[in-house]
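User: I'm new to structure prediction. If I give you an amino acid sequence, what do you actually give back? Let's try with this one:
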Amino acid sequence: MIGEFADAFCIIVWNSHHSHSPRREGDTFIPHTQRPKQGVRIECWIRRRLHKIGQSKIEQDTIRYDTIQQRRLMEEESITEKLADVGTKILHYLDFEFDRSAGTIFVTGGHGSMSYRVASRLLNAGFPSVRVGALHADEMSDLNKLGAEVADFSWSNDETYAKALNGAKSVFCTTPHHEGWDKEFELFLEACQQAEVKHIVKMSFYHANKPADELQEVPLVKLHGECDKKLMQSGIAYTIVAASHLMSNPLVYQIKNLQDDKTPAKLYGASAGRAVNYVSPNDVAETAVRALLAPKDHVDKVYSLTGPVPIKEDEVAALLGKFMNKPVMYVDQPIEFFEMEEKRSGDPSWLVEDLVSLEKMKASGHEGYISFLSTDFENICGHKAETFEDYLANIDTMSPREKALAA
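Assistant: Good question. You get back a string of structure tokens that encode the predicted 3D arrangement of the chain. For your 407 residues, that looks like this:
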């Protein structure tokens, strides 16, 4: 009890002894030699206690500081680990330094297979501010649960652009595929300039930026090239990811045929038995995420992404059959018959022209050449591109529309 009282008394003395308050007028300082002898022992005892308490307080402060620093380091390590998880759904770790000033990232068309992948990777990585644009916000509940802000956004309504872009520093842009989409992109680009967006990562088509390439005969490819050029001239930092045919395309664009109860389900095309180059949307998403999270490494770059090997459409049908656990047969139609069937289906003329041109490109056989392959993905990400089998095996990374066809 006496010891506790003495400690309390000494703490009071310690605090007053180390106070920065000035000495009051009239206070008298008594030199040690003039003090009463009986007080000398008390003073020495107090000084020893003060020294011990002082040391204890210093040690406690040091421990407290070290604890705070350790907690802060643990939090930073946790964040770093989460950020390193971007892309781990495809079993590969990112090996670049995350740019913490990337700001809010706006992702257009959250319903699409590419936008969904990019947004989910950013959110699963713990990126703090991801905004997803969607026409029907209620359909984005899964991304919303992961922490995404969902903004009303429609390519067909330019009045939604400004609010969706408000405060965004970076944009991942996948353009729609409907008539007049290139004009809408121009308006969207103007809105990005007004919103002072700093960086745009845009999806494009393989060789869209090569005017002399035969792919320019495809209207879709040519329009992408024109839009890419406008982006390059906009004054906004850009990264253009130009991909060949996405492996998700057969699932997304022929979903009605594949869901047909008839056996076998049909996959239609006009590739004339030629090999086609498909690229995994997982690889495209990983490239885009790297560009978004480390923009300084990818500013003003155009990347061409292809799959590792070409594959024939009947092989694709067989793989889809395993994926869906039902027989799928590829029906290779003469190009004239394919065009007639597309027109008969009620598709608008602009879409028929795009689809027919793409099938003609496949039938040319050029996608089967080694010269068609690009090493950009491997150079950027440090590992090999996914095969069609790899893509179908990674169900967890798929958009809801793709998952709906899984067995």
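You can read the tokens as a compact description of the fold. Here is one thing that stands out. The first strand starts at residue 104 and ends at 107.
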